[in-house]
Specification:
single chain, mainly alpha, 2 domains, three-stranded mixed sheet, 3 strands, about 55% helix, about 10% strand
Amino acid sequence: MLPHIRKKLRTKLLNIVFLIGILSVVNAQDNVDKNEIVGFACFFGGKPSKTVEKYTQKLNSKNYKWISKQLESENKAEQYMSVITLEKLTELRKYKLSETELNLIAEIKKSTKLVSVCSGCTYFQKVELKNMFTKEMLPMANDWLNYNFKKE
């Protein structure tokens, strides 16, 4: 095969591979609810999701009452973030969970309702809430919690 034809074919092949990659990212993102997404390093920039950013702000302003109220939110991402945040606050003896909060947390940790999750550019899934509390899913949350409590 002539070198110039080989170069054109290689360029076309690279373009096709690039487009497939872009389309699969877009397609993967269509699978999730962008208003109810948990992600500590999402999309191309590795930024936290809006839900995580909101919780960072509430945590920094010590608005624990708001965090607690979100245990009853319809938004599953907020329920998850409230559970991990309140449990960490309790562990650090900065918050005392009420019996009602303990019951809500227990319910959330058993829930089969779906929450959207993202990580990086290409991982976008819906996961049962109860699976968000497994050892496979908690490391990024723990990193976020440790970082935010180290700032205090």
